[in-house]
Design a protein that fits this description.
By secondary structure, this protein is mainly alpha-helical. It contains 3 helices and no strands.
């Protein structure tokens, strides 16, 4: 299978976005970030999950990228 040059440069990086000190190293020198986060189903009974993950963690990522 042959991929385009852009796909060959793609790297999957896992990082805990609730831990701000991990975000910068995970971003490295990336010029584009695709974020695929969302509150986990296992946190369905944790009413803070969507706030912590969908808002705070996403904000941490945005702040680190600025």
């Amino acid at each position: 299978m042959v991929f385009s040059p852009a796909v060959e440069k793609l790297a999957l990086v896992e990082c805990d976005l609730e831990k701000q000190d991990q975000i910068g190293p995970a971003l490295g020198n990336a010029s584009v970030v695709i974020c695929c986060i969302g509150a986990s189903e296992k946190e369905v009974f944790d009413i803070t999950g969507p706030y912590r993950i969908d808002y705070l963690a996403a904000k941490n990522l945005i702040d680190a990228g600025e």
